[in-house]
Write a structure and sequence with these properties.
single chain, about 150 residues, mainly alpha, Arc Repressor Mutant, subunit A, two-stranded antiparallel ribbon, 6 helices, 2 strands, globular
Length: about 150
Amino acid sequence: MTDAITPELMRTATDLRVALGRIVRRFKQGKVVGDLSQPESSVLARLERDGAATPGVLADLERIRPQAMGVTLAGLVERGLVARHPDKADGRKVLMSITDAGRRITLDRRSHTTSRIAAALAEQFSDAERRRLADAIPLLERLGEGL
């Protein structure tokens, strides 16, 4: 801890943690049996956005142990959402890539979640409040990357 961490900053951090935790819980309450876990969703989104990657690179990017990434990837491969193929640049390595089925489920989940957020924003927030939330998004992304 540095001297820059004041009691006010600690209160802000606590309030932010509680608010974000509440949002995450609300999304989890909408899950159904057989739905993707958070790690599975995150890996699919990353593969869709960034393209194929090795399991080791994915583990590093997701900040989890390689063994945990192996379990996550095995489940995604078993469900046909991710495919394994040899790395053309280095035949000793395996690349993981999202399949068409993985893209469809990612799009469906994103559309559903985005619709829930949009409905809440439309019903519960003023135009000015929505602008304030939009302005905070880059800050929240930077916070997430820095943790």
